[in-house]
Hints:
Oligomer: single chain
CATH topology of the largest domain: Rossmann fold
Structural class: alpha/beta
CATH superfamily of the largest domain: L-asparaginase, N-terminal domain
Number of domains: 2
Amino acid sequence: MTLTIRLPRITILGTGGTIAGSATSQTQTTGYQPGAISIQSLIDAVPAIAQIATVKGEQVANFRSTEVTSPILLDLCRRARAANESDDCDGVVITHGTDTLEETAFFLSLTVPWKKPIVFVGAMRPATAISADGPINLLQAVTLAASPTALGRGPLVVLNDRISSGFYITKSSANALDTFKAPEQGHLGYFDNSQPKFFYSSASPIGLHYFDIKDTIDLPQVDIVYGYQGLNPHIITEYVRAGAKGLILATMGNGGWTIAGMEVVRQVIEGGVIVVHSHRSQDGAVSSSVDISISSGLLSPQKSRIMLQLALSSGYTLEQTKSIFEI
């Protein structure tokens, strides 16, 4: 009698990006067309996946990740949540462009219950490159999503033989294969012969907050204002005129902003706009002593923006919003 071993069932949600990119030559690694290849073609190009899991591909979108909007993000979230809660799925893999991967991974960290593994994967070289990193990354992502060791860790990010937290990770280089890092928090694990190895047992990040967005169809406009020497203090009011309900300041140092600029910040706050002080440096935190604004704590400007969008969408009061930032 032959026993049939059921392989883990993995749903792969494709959104495009470099991992699905196509160039005119095998040596071209810039100037290519992201999102040119279907998710099924990516799966078919890695036959070893069939030995690891039974996979089903869904094409959510197919373009560069700079084109992700709130409705697309919400749709992806609902699909990931549905797969995560289905009895016919043991894990989810999401292929994504690297430019904004950290934002989507952070969004799903806050909006999808941590029941089954959710793994984000991308590539720094297009699928047509002679040294394409997408196939091995996809194989490892599926392997991780099928592994019980990934349970209870929230969305994870796989690139370049490393496993990282979707809550903490950031893209540190525009070009390098080892671009995704969390310098202060570190990687969660690595791959040995494409098998996942973790450094730590599963744990939730400090400051993790869950938002229920089942009935949300769009998110409020929140813009990021970059700080620099001699900044135009009135640029903030232009963002508000253009519809911003909240603003994130990518400040200089620990909440630093110009004196003239802070006068304008006070004016827009008095007008009902919530302002969060974040930091333009890659790491560090903005302390809770920052004047009349909310401080972002450890969150980068792009992640602070997502947190504020979700808070505004959920109807949080100023004090509630402050509490989820200033941990």
